[in-house]
Design goal:
Number of domains of chain B: 1
Structural class of chain A: alpha+beta
Distance between the termini of chain B: 35 Å
Oligomer: heterodimer
Structural class of chain B: alpha+beta
Order of helices and strands of chain A: HEEEHEHEHEEEEH
Radius of gyration of chain A: 16 Å
Order of helices and strands of chain B: HEHHEEHEEHH
Largest sheet of chain A: 7 strands, mixed
Helix content of chain B: 25-40%
Shape of chain B: elongated
Largest interface: A-B, 54 and 51 residues
Number of strands of chain B: 5
Distance between the termini of chain A: 35 Å
Number of strands of chain A: 9
Chain lengths: 185, 157
């Protein structure tokens, strides 16, 4: 990374913290989906352990290829800091992200990844709850291409929203922010 | 367009709980940018990934879910959480049509974790893309425009 760019990243992420403004919308709510093992999972699956939650799809060639590895690295960094956090992927492409295909893909993303899919209606309800937009913008030879929201959500061990993490942040910075919240909660 | 803006604003207000209305209303001018290419440096320095030079790539990035930012005149970047006209807070295809436009926006500024977030309630003015960086940098990256299109433009003069 060039020094000028590195400086810009620092400018974005290193301004003083504290006094965080609450966001003007609630994030989170009930859902009923299916995990990579074929088991039904509700929002109760997010209780008991803090989570990093991302909406994307396994075939995505764009932001998911950045966000998913960074989310996984962040989980590993938090492990090293003594905090167990579960990475969660909710698919936006249920036609291709079936439980079986997610079972194959999940270990490559993170060994503890909880990958969730479901019907279009059930996933639409989950996206509404977490205020994530999805739009099919075209097709290529591998299938549909989706534009979709890509912020990673940090949830506490009650499944409640703590903060959002832009996927362009490095995993070290994501872990630093997560630690700040999780040590408080 | 104005009808869409009004609908989006109402949707946002309806979702806003009374206890969480903090934030600061601001009016701000800046360019909507592709935050991944701007901050990562993968496509070149920051001056080459704004304006016309990077417009095609920026649209592809927005289409792929890369968050859009507003690069203000003072150099601060605001992560745009919601742009008037989109239904939800996380992502939206309105960005596709406005990336690299220089706009004057009115909205709410939220500072969290040292990061600036912006919820745009109204685009007051849109100057299009006055930042003609292609004159200095060409197209960055060059392969965002298919060779066939380049050939046709050259043929057509």
């Amino acid at each position: 990374m060039r020094p000028a760019v590195a400086a810009l990243v620092v400018a974005l992420v290193a301004s003083p913290v504290g006094a965080e403004s609450p966001l003007p919308f609630d994030i989170g709510g009930p859902f009923t989906l299916v995990d990579q093992g074929g088991e039904e999972r509700t929002e109760a699956a997010l209780v008991g352990t803090p989570s990093l939650l991302f909406f994307g799809y396994a075939q995505c060639q764009s932001i998911c290829t950045v966000a998913l590895p960074r989310m996984a690295e962040t989980v590993d960094l938090l492990d090293e800091a003594g905090l167990k956090v579960r990475p969660v992927l909710v698919t936006i492409d249920p036609a291709r992200d079936t439980p079986a295909s997610l079972k194959d893909a999940a270990p490559g993303i993170h060994p503890r990844l909880l990958a969730l899919t479901g019907s279009e209606a059930a996933l639409s309800a989950a996206r509404r709850a977490y205020r994530v937009e999805r739009e099919k913008i075209g097709e290529d030879i591998q299938g549909p291409i989706f534009s979709h929201g890509s912020f990673v959500y940090l949830l506490d061990d009650a499944g409640q929203f703590l903060t959002l993490l832009p996927p362009i942040l490095g995993s070290e910075r994501m872990a630093e922010i997560a630690l700040k919240y999780l040590k408080k909660s | 367009m104005m009808r869409l803006l009004a609908v989006a604003t109402l949707a946002l207000c309806a979702a806003m709980p009374a206890h969480a209305a903090e934030g600061k209303r601001i009016e701000i001018k800046g360019e909507l940018i592709d935050t991944w290419c701007y901050f990562s440096g993968v496509m070149g320095g920051p001056e080459s990934v704004v304006g016309t030079a990077h417009h095609t790539c920026a649209m592809w990035c927005a289409a792929g879910g890369i968050p859009v930012g507003l690069l203000a005149e003072d150099g601060e970047v605001y992560m745009v959480l919601k742009l008037a006209g989109d239904d939800e807070s996380n992502g939206g295809d309105t960005f596709l049509t406005m990336n690299n436009d220089t706009i004057v926006a009115e909205g709410m500024h939220y500072a969290r974790d040292g990061i600036n977030y912006l919820v745009v309630s109204e685009v007051i003015a849109n100057e299009g893309i006055p930042n003609h960086t292609h004159e200095d940098f060409g197209v960055t990256p060059g392969n965002t425009i298919p060779d066939s299109v380049v050939d046709k433009v050259l043929e057509d003069g």
